[in-house]
Amino acid sequence: MILSTAEWAVIALSLRVSLVAVLVTLPIAYALAWLIARRRFPGGMLLDAAIHLPLVLPPVVTGWLLLIVLGRNGPVGAWLEAAFGITLVFNWLGAAIAAAVMALPLMVRAMRLSIEAVDRRLVGAARTLGASPFRAFLTITLPLSLPGIAAGAMLGFARSLGEFGATITFAANIEGQTRTLPLAIYSGLQVPGNEDAVARLAVISIILSLGALMVSEWLVRRSQGSRAHVL
Amino acid sequence: MSFDVDIELTLGERRIACAFASGAKLTALVGPSGAGKTSVLNAISGLLKPSSGRIAVAGNFLFDSSTHCDIAPEKRRAGYVFQDARLFPHLRVEGNLAYGEKLAAPAERWITRSNVTGLLQIEDLLGRWPATLSGGETRRVAIARALLSAPRFLLLDEPLASLDPDRAEALASLIERIRDTLDIPILLVSHSADEVDRLAGEVVKLDAPDTDTPQVSSSTGRRDL
């Protein structure tokens, strides 16, 4: 399968957007997952619901909300432009933010399950052996929830790679900036006689997404037994 | 006083009151299943916060609700041998032993690694994963891990259960030796009357809760050491 330079550029942009989205979201998602799994605090249910919002909202609505807040005229967006000259709209960073927001709930869910699966009595044992709460977290909870982190990262990556609605609404469809794989496929379909290019990009999408899902399944099964599942 | 405990615990719907003061080097805590013996050990180790009362071990206050004193578990330095061992599954036996050992100040250690592994006969297990150990092996590793953390007092929850007679005997004599040669108060939870008779200087009986008087009776010393 021979790809054109433009198609390689689309793949490279998609990978960059997805990787940045996942890497930036990873620590935030883990912190949120830990909070929800281990702490009871006022507003906890509200936080849980807010994190899951992108999972249940139409992606276009999520994109529109991002546009309201982070767009050029939005409160945060206007400040970013005035203070740092950063415009997220029409920019690959905007695509990464849209992907990150859409990936967050999936990542939090996977990590939360694995944190909940860590026996709290082990943390108690570590405390009696002289470990501070932070040390017990670093030496017990974190390593034992590693499979969930890996699974969450992979799921978030696959989700970011497939992000369409929020990205096109918030970051728009600019070639070389925000035209990731799904957007390129959509754009290709608008031009008659472009079926081959569309098919090539679709096959690439399938390979990348399936690969990410299989890697995360493998990681979870390897550490939690053959009956464990990611989804 | 080795142990001076007067606490009230709330576990969901249940309330457990427990009061005893023991000057013996080894105190046994006995009582029917569900009386809350393990909960008392948890409270002394700092893993469970009493709703009120006070806990002092060897003259040091660990908890006192009247002065809002509540020492963190890692600062209490309890050598707690849990009934369910609680070995860390992601660390080999060696890693489990090292966990508390490296957190203890060298000056406070009173037993060496080779001493412990020899006494408990676990030299051959050091490279194994906890999941591959038998019940008795798991228990011996858990005891070794607690001893190596340089504890100031020991909380032993059924330490001899599920050990074969030879190993139980070896461990009982180790406990005797710690009791007789070291200034380390020991609180032992046990179901075995023989074990209690042999080891304990004082016996505290914890009654089943939900009776009219959920108060604990502290029996008189059987054999003060």
How would you explain this protein's 3D organization?
The complex is a heterodimer of chains A (231) and B (225). Chain A has helices at 5-38, 44-56, 59-70, 75-84, 92-116, 120-128, 133-144, 146-162, 165-170, 181-190, 195-224. Chain A is mostly helical and 231 residues long. The radius of gyration of chain A is 20 Å and the shape is globular. In chain B, helix 3 runs parallel beside helix 5 (135-148). The model of chain B is unreliable at 211-225 (pLDDT under 50). In chain B, strands 7-8-9-3-10-11 form a 6-stranded mixed sheet. In chain B, 44% of the residues are buried. Chain B has helices spanning 37-45, 73-76, 93-101, 113-119, 135-148, 165-181, 193-199; strands at residues 3-11, 14-22, 26-30, 52-57, 60-64, 69-70, 78-81, 153-157, 186-189, 202-205, 217-218. Helix content of chain B is 30%, strand content 24%. At the A-B interface, helix 6 and helix 7 of A face helix 2 and strand 7 of B.
List segments of chain B where confidence is low: pLDDT < 50 over at least 5 consecutive residues.
211-225
Average pLDDT of chain B:
87
Q: What structural class do you assign from the helix and strand content of chain A?
A: mainly alpha
Helix percent of chain B reads 25-40%
Shape of chain A: globular
State the largest interface. A-B, 17 and 25 residues
Percentage of β-strand residues of chain A: under 5%
Helix and strand topology:
The complex is a heterodimer of chains A (231) and B (225).
Chain A (H helix, E strand, L loop, with lengths): L4 H34 L5 H13 L2 H12 L4 H10 L7 H25 L3 H9 L4 H12 L1 H17 L2 H6 L10 H10 L4 H30 L7
Chain B lengths: L2 E9 L2 E9 L3 E5 L6 H9 L6 E6 L2 E5 L4 E2 L2 H4 L1 E4 L11 H9 L11 H7 L15 H14 L4 E5 L7 H17 L4 E4 L3 H7 L2 E4 L11 E2 L7
Parallel strand pairs in B: 3-9, 3-10, 7-8, 8-9
Antiparallel strand pairs in B: 1-2, 1-4, 4-5, 5-6, 10-11
Helix pairs in contact in B: 3-5
